[in-house]
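Please, is this right?
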Amino acid sequence: MNELVRITEKDLVAVALKPLEKGSTLSYGSGEVTLRSDIPMGHKVALRDIKKGEPVIKYGFPIGEATEDIPRGAHIHTHNLHTLLSGQKEYTYQPTHPAVTKREPASFMGYPRRSGRPGIRNELWILPTVGCVNDVAKALAQRAQKLVGGSVEGVYAFPHPYGCSQLGDDQNNTRKVLASLATHPNAGGVLVLGLGCENSGIEQIKPYMGAYDESRMRFLICQQAEDEVDEGMKLLEELAANMQSDQRVPCSADQLVVGLKCGGSDGLSGITANPTLGVFSDLLTSMGGSTILTEVPEMFGAETILMGRCENEELFHKTVSLINDFKGYFEAYHMPVYENPSPGNKAGGITTLEDKALGCTQKSGSSPVRGVLAYGEHVENPGLNLLSAPGNDLVAATALAVSGAQLILFSTGRGTPFGCPVPTIKIASNSPLAQHKKNWIDFNAGRLLDGMTLEQLGSELMEYVLAVASGKQARNEQNGFHDLAIFKQGVTL
């Protein structure tokens, strides 16, 4: 196993693939370097002397500037490297015209839906319209576990604190989220549970749902029911009985929408796990399927790569707005746009937001950008889509599900147990994590460092995704972890 990797020939740094000791002389492909200090796994070492104020290059791009003279062999991290990011920028469309290879779509066993895309699960969902009925939803989900079996694959409640005391776009976003989840293909039946006096009640949410399959939907206003739990159970029993006739049938992978997300990242995420997701994304989109990349603040510093891959100038301008509007969101609250990476990211070797962004965008592969989505907007164009949502893991993963993702691929270098409303497959960036947290991790991309190729890992991940789409449970499902988080953007009354 190599001990250092230089990602591109332009790079002024190499990344430690395991903990390295001071005084070691190590090769990195085209040369060798003697370490001036211990280097933790995932952290960077200087390959030549770097002057104060000089850009530090990784992934072939600047990840910040040196804040002091850095000698060859030194550890590069927060003590001597600082971001170059600032506020909004002007951009010019410089298309790179990425190559597109078309492949025959693979197939999976899914549930056909009248509304369009097939579901990969046949679950019974309880969606409260407002936080006031969260406990009712949870009580119903607990009592309704007896309905699981046959074609009913699970019963889940999705509590949240919103649905009332909101204004404007913030309120509209909550309505869009709840409506999109109510009509999500992974739900074979949905009970929408209202209180009765909230400002985003059932009658306000219905118009956002469009044409929906009435046989799979029930509504209950708790203030109008003598016993809301008994009434709710009757409705859930009706839905479960209807779902028992559902059967998995062969479905084409061009009907799959897969969300791409990373969290708890380390210095190897952009070298192993995220590029593996990129190979997968290129494979699925070449079959006519769709992938969604989000976490807009974690595109800052790598956004021009995505802009150059936009299929046309209209999408380029939408991407510019995606980036600058999110910077404006930070600035409106007087927050620095570079207040990232997280403490865990830094401990894992990620120093600046550019460092993080260049690693994060590896998830998008090399395909053209074919859609740019507002928060809560559904995927319409097959191929790679960009979605406006923050980097927070559960908020972003929920946003991916709301935009139509039937499952999420979530790469991580430090590990995380959570699951969103849809299967959330965890891909480890390193083998120690995969071995240590087998109850969290579904797929080990750290095997790239043991001799596997990205193409092999990407193909294997495709097979794993098709298996999960056909009913194999992801770790979060085995653990019973399903959560929902709505992006809060406005005033609370």
In short: The radius of gyration is 23 Å. The first strand starts at residue 4 and ends at 5. The domain at 4-82 is CATH 2.30.130.110 (Archaeosine Trna-guanine Transglycosylase; Chain: A, domain 4).
